[in-house]
Amino acid sequence: MTFSATDDRRFPAVDARTRHFSLGAPRSFTVVAEQSRVFFLRSKGPFDRTLHLWSIDIRTRHFSLGAPRSFTVVAEQSRVFFLRSKGPFDRTLHLWSIDIDGDEASERLIVDVEELGRTVDDIPEVERQRRERMRESSFGITAYSLDASGRRAVFSLAGALYLADTLSDERPTLLSDDAGVVDPRINAPGDRVAYLAGDALRVVHCDTREVVTVATGTPTRTVGLANYVAAEELDRTRGHWWSPCGQYLAFEEADSSNLETFYIFDPKAPSVAPSSRRYPQAGTPNPVLRMGLWSVAAPLYYLDLPFDRYEYLVTVSWAKGRGLLLTLMTRDHHDQEVFVVSPTTGAVTSVFTDHNDVFLEWINGLPTCTPDGRLLVGVVDEVSDTYRVATVVDGVATAFSPEGLQVAAVVGVTDESVLVVATNDPTSVVSARINFDGTADIAGGAASQVRALDGTPGGLIVSALTTVDDLDTTYVVRVPNGEPVVVPSFALTAKDCDPPVTPKVQLRIVGEHQLAVAVLLPTSRTESTKGIPIILSPYGGPHFQMVVGAGRAYAMDQYIADQGYCVIVADGRGTGGRGPAWDRSIFGELGTLPVEDQVAALEAVCAELGDLVDPSRVGIRGWSFGGYLAARAVLERPDVIHAAVAGAPVTDFALYDTGYTERYLGHPATNAAAYDKANLVPLAGQLRHPLLFIHGYNDDNVYFAHTQVLSDALLAAGKSHHVLGLSGVTHMPTDPVIATNMVQMELDFFADALRR
Hints:
Elements (H helix, E strand, L loop, with lengths): L26 E6 L4 E6 L9 E6 L11 E6 L4 E6 L7 E10 L2 E8 L13 H10 L4 E2 L4 E2 L5 E6 L2 E6 L7 E2 L6 E6 L5 E6 L2 E6 L5 E6 L4 E3 L4 H6 L6 E3 L5 E8 L4 E5 L10 E5 L8 E8 L5 E2 L9 E8 L3 E7 L5 E7 L6 E8 L12 E2 L5 E7 L4 E8 L2 E4 L6 E8 L3 E9 L2 E8 L4 E4 L4 E8 L5 E7 L6 E5 L6 E3 L18 E5 L4 E6 L11 E5 L18 H7 L4 E6 L8 H5 L8 H17 L3 E11 L1 H12 L6 E5 L10 H8 L6 H7 L12 E6 L8 H12 L5 E5 L9 H20 L1
């Protein structure tokens, strides 16, 4: 590692017991790829000279494999469906159910993927890209669709379309001869399935096997798929929707022919032509949208919607007895409008509008209607600074959820109440049954997460439960007037590692802006331990929280801490869960507030811990926005940040997409100053400390160009740095060996940068 002559880091006197800070560090690594295991030597602490043999099993995918997920409650049958692999090292998902009969509950394996004889990783390219937007890396049945009764289920596997009878022991049957099937959806009656195959949106009859082509797209015009901006930035991953009666199918059409073409190449295969993507770069055109409506008994037609004003289709759902509900939003995120469409006449009616001068939010699960037809929307209560649920009458919204309860999602609705997921303090997630008179029954407390996943208030509810002191996630089916049923999980936790990792998290609220902070220290420290180097481990970007009441969220941070560091995880302004004013404070300030808040958190923790930590040796690591924050921190504040690992960083927001960038920085044509302030390239000449970039060449979210343009600027300024390019890797590394070795490279980097 090369340092400039102006490097002014100050190192304390060396404690001879650490052997130049090498004791406790892992060494002599051996990877056994066939077992996905890494072996190494390490002592048991920073003052222990005796080496022991350890291993890490890296097949658990952050301890998620074997855990149930993708729950669907079928209340009429008292059944809960879900996906789960067969063990903690198995990436193949199968379809299961929990059948509840009074006080008894039984589990069934509905579809065993292994019996179908398909190569589970043979995935159509369109499906690969769709999964990338959802950060999906498992195999097998990654999504399924049920009819209203729960009797029939459909799914795609290796591009083939299957139909399963969930009450039968018979194997699922092939429903269509089409290849490359993507995102199949069965209608409520269970007689038809809509799906994508090639460029076409099709419907197959479950009994006759007759296939109808609803609409056909082109390589630049998709039908029935969520466009890039919707899937990546608007939390909408679907592109076609059945009506409750099962006779109508609404679908999105997105024409991307006017978008710029970005290319991705594989440096290991120079003879292979680059693949291309139509990418909505900030300041350039968005896809041109249309909404189609197909009927079993009538010709296809397109809805008369004002997409000339509203470039974003944010939400789509059907309300029984009301019609198709759509939320459209302007490109500047200042205006939204909710429309109801009659499927029989095609009439489009505006039922609610909303405006904000900074940017608007939406609440997952809204808008929707109660069974008796009342319209529910999400609103911002400026007076109480709260995201609330409201009823709408004649275009006027009246909020009824409690002030101070920040509603994040609506999970279920009845005529009496709604079931929501919300936050009521900076680190906790609660579930609440909220009655229309404003009273609420809240489940959850401080430093915990009680997250309702599916169900209705007063009925069956599936929830995920965690606490900051527990590494397990418990999945529970709450039964009215009955005992809760625990859904078995095969997932391991960090305490099952060899050596075990048991996060000991200290949560703090610090500083002028009341920042939520988690602090993790080496478990091997003693009363005499002093001068521990520090690693900041933030995300720091808008709307995403890292400091949460779940011990399992800190497994990697504790592992890093156990190598001899104090790890600080801090959520700065704009990171979510705190209310509208907090969220909007980040507008135009991506280049200022994130670094300011990390430094404030660092100073507060150092003041509290005193000589236990060494503020002259501080590193920072992060991925995506966290990578941007890490690179910016080491460039902008070399006085307090002395090394950085920037993973897949945005470096110039003018190269990032419209939906995210313009939301927080405005349009580059009208707010160029905010883009200039956020740009890292002009700061290249300020680098004084070690900087490591890690980036996948195949990243189609934050393109590798971001790392390259900053690396070029650093080279031009004569600044030494390191770039680790990952061939075949997209935005998030999925190969367990690569992911584990990346972490070790980070640790080697920090050991060299902060301990010499």
